[in-house]
Amino acid sequence: MKLNDKIRDRKIVYLFRKKPEIAFELALLYFTLAKRKEARKQVVEACQKSVYWLKQAGIEVARHLHLLSPFGQLEEIERILVNNKASLSSAGKC
Question: Which of 14, 47, 57, 81 could covalently link to 73 via disulfide, CB atoms 3.0 to 4.6 Å apart?
């Protein structure tokens, strides 16, 4: 299954269930998509979508994130994902 297909499927599941775990998974999928892209515009778009889904998952995102370069945003999003994956796993949600 392609990454875009997984994203589409998870969006549909989120539409019905509205669980933060699904939103977190979508943020992770968009982060993966951003890491694969070479073009700056595509990286920016994928980063914005990842940040959106992090917020939907109830995860606090730094205000200065939009001021960073696209690749700086990727590093910050990766840090947020790693830190919060552990907290979601310990809570038994993932």
Answer: 47
